Amino acid sequence: MLTVETRYAIDPASAKALDTTGLRAHFHAGGLFAAGQIRLIYSHYDRMIVGAAVPDGADLLLDHVKECGTASVLDRREMAVLNVGGAGVVSAAGVDYAMGKGDVVYLGLGSGPVRFSGAGRFYILSAPAHAAYPARLITIKDAKSFRTGAPETANDRTIFQFVHPEVMQSCQLVMGYTQFHGGSVWNTMPAHLHDRRMEAYLYFDLDPAQRVFHIMGAPQETRHLVVANEEAVISPPWSIHCGAGTGSYSFCWAMAGDNTDYRDVDMVAMEALR
């Protein structure tokens, strides 16, 4: 079963007037991981698709998505799939990619329908593509990683880069995830912006009883979203994106837009935040 929700882009002034319900309707993505279903959100921020597939013992096929305007979803798109569950398989263009937890598959333009099977819980990201790059399974051992932050600032973490110029070539998708070390809970602080790219966050490996407070909004007009395990946030280019959890967690970050330069950010001074 496939369901698709469309989210339209709004400007900072409009977002400023939203209450909690309005903020969540535009930027929070809950209920993506549903047994036996593929659920997608088609965002008008750089036309990013965010979603999930949970086969739950039965194969799921992702092919025609009306919102894309093409016969098959990857006719003019590329895709990255992260497995946050058990052993599973993603199949495309006659190739089966066996995935463990934490593995990522990249599928290039023209890869055709995508099939999901096994015990995986598959997080799906897709953006428009201008060229066909080779499909690839990227395990955590293949990813580029670096440790940053410090326990003293509660942000001691390792960043794993998967779909990234230092690992592989893509059109506009840049994607990876971050894992925290003992007692650290703050992500992406000091905050930054990158007006040239939107971003999507998936929070996972979070105890069901815990929450992440995701901070968003213009630097001088911040807001927050309370996010549970396996819930996502769509972050517009004009918004900061940082947060802190009440317990340990990981998060997947993904960007689409004008470039694939991970370091192309505009830092926001701590004293500038309001």
Number of helices: 2
Q: What would you give as the CATH superfamily?
A: Jelly Rolls
Span between N and C termini?
Answer: 43 Å
**Strand residue content:** over 45%
Just name the CATH architecture.
Answer: Sandwich
Mean pLDDT: 96
Q: How many domains, in number, for the residues? A: 1
Query: What is the succession of H and E elements?
Result: EHHEEEEEEEEEEEEEEEEEEEEEEE
Using the coordinates shown, work out and report the CATH topology.
Jelly Rolls
Backbone CA Rg: 17 Å
Which consecutive residue ranges, at least 5 long each, have pLDDT under 50?
none
Dominant shape: globular
CATH classification class: Mainly Beta
Largest beta sheet: what is the strand line-up?
1-3-4-11-6-9-12
Taking the sheet with the most strands, its summary is:
7 strands, mixed
- The secondary structure category is mainly beta
Assign a percent range to the helix content: under 10%
Number of E-type strands: 24
Describe the structure.
By secondary structure, the protein is mainly β. It has a single domain (2-272), classed as Jelly Rolls (Sandwich), CATH 2.60.120.10. The chain is 5% helix and 45% strand. It is built from 2 helices and 24 strands. The chain has helices at residues 12-16, 20-27; strands spanning 2-7, 28-29, 37-43, 49-54, 60-62, 77-83, 88-92, 95-99, 104-107, 114-118, 122-128, 136-138, 144-148, 157-163, 174-180, 186-187, 192-193, 197-204, 212-218, 221-227, 231-235, 242-245, 250-257, 266-267. Strands 1-3-4-11-6-9-12 form a 7-stranded mixed sheet, with no helix packed on it. A 7-stranded antiparallel sheet has the order 2-21-18-23-15-14-13. Strand 19 and strand 20 form a beta hairpin. The protein is globular and about 55 Å long. 43% of the residues are buried.
